[in-house]
């Protein structure tokens, strides 16, 4: 049974490959016609059109796997959150989130301050014009 499924999967993907190729070529031509200062215009390489029929199966199965993983994790989260709401009456999560958010924010502020001192120090040391 799985061999028949694999046969139809490969056969269907062979029919879908020209459609993917046509969609990629069409999107490239639409993008090439856009004016240069258009914010939606991207810098695509022309060889990306010919690479698309080989990469779409991998991207399809990767996105399908990611979707299944997200759905599973969402279900686990719903079950655990429901259990936590029923069993825990003390709002410890807000205290915990406050501590975590403050710690992350302090680390980011320290890192950004260090970057500013390292890279903007030469401009700060020059005398300011009046």
Helix and strand succession?
HHHH
Helix content: over 70%
Mean pLDDT: 84
End-to-end CA span: 83 Å
Oligomer: single chain
Task: Sketch the major β-sheet.
Answer: none
Number of strands: 0
Low-confidence stretches: none
If helices are DSSP runs of H or I spanning 4 or more residues, what is the number of helices? 4
Shape: flat
Percent of residues in beta strands?
A: under 5%
Rg over alpha carbons: 26 Å
Describe this structure in words.
The protein has 130 residues and is mostly helical. The protein has two domains: 2-88, no CATH class; 90-130. It is 81% helix and 0% strand. The chain is built from four helices and no strands. It has helices at residues 2-33, 48-87, 92-119, 121-125. Helix 1 (2-33) packs across helix 2. The N and C termini lie far apart (83 Å). 0% of the residues are buried.
What is the structure about, briefly put?
The chain has helices spanning 2-33, 48-87, 92-119, 121-125.
Mind sketching the topology for me?
Blueprint: H1 2-33, H2 48-87, H3 92-119, H4 121-125
